[in-house]
Design brief:
This protein is mainly α. A two-stranded antiparallel ribbon has the order 1-2. α1 runs parallel beside α6, α6 packs antiparallel against α10 and α8 packs antiparallel against α9. It is built from 21 helices and 2 strands.
Length: about 500
């Protein structure tokens, strides 16, 4: 990473808490903000749209054929006798809603690889700060943009997506500079668990704010609170231990020693693009990431709409039922990660086996849950439980294919994540548009069965491909010929990817 010499260590800002864990917690909160501001519109949309004005006319010619056979769930009275729909000021049909929800990923798609290079060559700290800053500004401007029309909202979401797209590459770069190899899994888990917590908090807050203070309060309150993080990040975070003054010298020496000759600094390397794009393990990760993201975005973006439009839950209930599984996802992701790491450290399973087990949890279980939803009909509580189990199980992806980048090429983990996550962003763009167009014609369970069926097929493709191509072994192209012949840090095969020793020690 570029810039500056070593700054004198003045001791940790918070006694007994290492600076690297302050970085981890603030990074986790930053990821929570990004994901919270990403999904809040999915809940807010329910309160923003005038459902009465856009409700399809079943006597219209387009719906005459087969109308009597359409399967719809009844809206049960809730508290004051109203139904789940709450009319807002905007007449946005299902197609417009799909475009608004998907356009976030237009920006997300284009920013990841450039963001990875800027973080690597300039400053990951400021790339991450920019990501949160642009999301906060656009969130605060969203209510005003909404009254101007659909396309101003689309612009706000594209800009938020540009910010969101650079977060994973920036955090990967920070982890490489700050995390001792033996702590890399723990620090990574703390940071990326923020995505699930941000989803939970956002959905619950958005539901309550919309219920009691109106839909606009979702954007003002959540955007305003996020400003505190922007200040804390500038004060407490630096790109590497050697640039951080708020650190104990013993901790700095420990990180530098554990990272070897790099000493907490990024070493510029030529990206071996040819070897990457001819690597079977890389394609195993790529296909798994793409296919799994179809299910992930289906549940992340479309679940609130399904709960409201099909199962007829009111917005407050909608937020609770859709947010709770993301909390259980957080607990499950930590549990399975610790379990598999424990088995690997004991030599009971290899890294390859651990990654495949976790990926199977994150694909087979959601696939079965979507299959069950196709036949559960209007049994609302059964649908809630099944959807909850599906969302929870996806948490295994953090210790599955998402960790696999570091296994096969720790020196290029950031750029590998940027490449696979760019391709895996395509479902974020296409899923909302596809769902919007299909449900615009027929907003009943029948349409959702088609949607779930296609997702199930992609899960099958993921399972077959990853079981065939997936690997936890470091690839030969991770290091240059000079590094291979020199006394560099060498990972022990079939151990956790954080267990590194020098060749002499090994």
């Amino acid at each position: 990473m570029a810039g500056g010499g070593e700054v004198p260590a003045r001791g940790n800002i918070i006694p007994l808490i290492p600076a690297r864990y302050i970085l981890s917690v603030l990074s986790s909160i930053g990821m929570a903000i990004i994901y919270g501001l990403k999904v809040n519109l999915s809940v807010a949309m329910v309160a923003m749209v005038n459902h009465t004005a856009i409700k399809p006319n079943v006597t219209d010619g387009a719906f005459d054929v087969g109308t009597s056979n359409r399967e719809e769930c009844s809206a049960e009275p809730i508290k004051n006798g109203t139904t789940g729909d709450q009319d807002g000021p905007f007449v946005w049909d299902a197609g417009s809603q799909g475009i608004i929800l998907s356009c976030y990923f237009w920006g997300y798609f284009i920013s990841q690889i450039p963001g990875a290079k800027v973080a690597e060559l300039f400053s990951a700290k400021w790339v991450m700060w920019f990501a949160v800053f642009i999301n906060v500004v656009c969130t605060l401007l969203t209510p005003y943009a909404a009254y101007l029309g659909v396309w101003p909202v689309v612009l706000m979401r594209i800009l938020e997506g540009i910010g969101g797209g650079v977060t994973f590459p920036a955090e990967h770069t920070l982890i490489a500079a700050w995390a001792p190899p033996q702590e890399r899994s723990t620090i990574s888990s703390i940071i990326y668990a923020g995505t699930a917590l941000g989803t939970v908090i956002s959905m619950l807050m958005a539901g309550m704010l919309a219920e009691f203070f109106g839909w606009a309060s979702i954007f003002y309150v959540m955007g305003g609170l996020s400003c505190v993080w922007l200040v804390l990040w500038i004060i407490f975070i630096q790109d590497s231990p050697n640039k951080q003054g708020l650190i104990d010298q013993a901790e700095r020496d420990y990180i530098n020693t554990s990272l070897g000759s790099g000493g907490g600094h990024h070493v510029a390397r030529r990206t071996p693009w040819k070897q990457i794009f001819t690597s079977p393990p890389f394609y195993g990760i790529l296909v798994a990431h793409f296919c799994n993201n179809v299910g992930w975005y289906m549940l992340l973006i479309e679940l609130p709409i399904y709960m409201n439009g099909v199962l007829k839950f009111a917005i407050k209930e909608n937020a609770i039922y859709t947010a709770t599984p993301f909390l259980t996802l957080w607990f499950f992701s930590i549990f399975i990660s610790k379990t598999l790491d424990g088995l690997r450290s004991k030599g009971a399973i290899s890294t390859t086996t651990a990654r495949k087990i976790a990926t199977m949890f994150a694909s087979v279980i959601p696939m079965c849950c979507l299959l069950a939803l196709c036949f559960i009909g209007c049994n609302k509580m059964a649908a809630v439980v099944i959807a909850g189990v599906g969302v929870t199980s996806i948490g295994a992806m953090f210790s599955g294919f998402l960790s696999n980048h570091i296994d096969i090429a720790p020196n290029f983990a950031g750029i590998l994540m940027a490449v696979t996550n760019t391709v895996a962003t395509i479902p974020g763009i296409t899923v909302p548009i596809f769902v919007g167009q299909l449900t615009k014609k027929d907003p009943t369970i029948a349409s959702w069965r088609i949607i779930f069926g296609i997702t199930i097929g992609l899960y099958v493709l993921e399972i077959i491909t990853y079981l065939t191509l997936g690997s936890g072994d470091e690839q030969p192209w991770n290091k240059s010929d000079d590094e291979k012949s020199g006394p560099e840090m060498t990972p022990l095969k079939d151990k956790a990817h954080s267990d590194y020793k020098t060749k002499d020690e090994a």
